[in-house]
Amino acid sequence: MARKYYLIAFLAFLASSLLTIRYFYPLTATPTAIPSPIPSKILPTGEEAVVQRVIDGDTIVLKDGRKVRYIGIDAPEMTDSSIFGFYASASAQKNVELVEGKQVILIKDVSETDDYDRLLRYVYVDDIFVNLELIKNGLAKLMLIPPDTSMKNEFTEAQDEAYQNKLGIWQEDN
Q1: What Cα–Cα distance (Å) separates residue 82 from each residue in 25, 76, 77, 164?
Q2: Which domain covers residue 121, as residue numbers?
């Protein structure tokens, strides 16, 4: 008989606790501790184009013949005889793997073209930000030319990480 009273008392306590919780924490409220799901692929909008060929680590030619220079980065040049130039082929090869023959999204910052009439753009392929990917892998270094500096913080952080991890052009042996 005593067990029955304990069970009833426990159930009454449980019910009152649930009512208290529901009163102070309504079930209709959105929990603030659980973030809303974010889509895994959020791509920017811009001009879509197909890459015909890669010139080097920071320049491509589109199928329509226009040349595009990646904003905010400087990849090693094939003609550079310094240690920096040693990574020119690795940078160009990574660029080929990322974009050649593929559809890309071109994002303008402020300037339309450079002094050589190349389009100045941030380049995305699938969900990869190509300019940033090359910096992250130590295959290009930061090169900010105002007014096209909207990605300065992201590029600086990626370069610092590549430098600390001694990736690509940042290896100590070179």
Answers
A1: 65, 9, 10, 21
A2: 47-170
Which position among 22, 66, 118, 172 bears the catalytic label? 118
Question: Which of the given ranges, 17-21, 34-38, 100-104, has the highest pLDDT on average?
Answer: 100-104
Query: CA separation (Å) from 43 to 47, 68, 97, 122, 129?
Result: 12, 19, 20, 12, 9
Share of residues in the chain with pLDDT > 70 (%): 70
* CATH number of the CATH domain containing 69: 2.40.50.90
pLDDT at res. 3: 56
Catalytic residue among 77, 100, 154, 161: 77
CA–CA separation, 72 and 111 (whole Å): 12
Annotation marks residue 53 as catalytic? no
Answer whether 0.85 is exceeded by the pTM: no
**pLDDT value at position 31?**
34
Q: Specify whether 22 is catalytic.
A: no
Total domains, the chain:
1
What are the E-state strand segments in 11-154? 47-56, 59-62, 67-70, 73-74, 103-107, 119-125, 128-129, 141-142
Residue of 169, 158, 165 lying closest to 133 (CA atoms)? 158
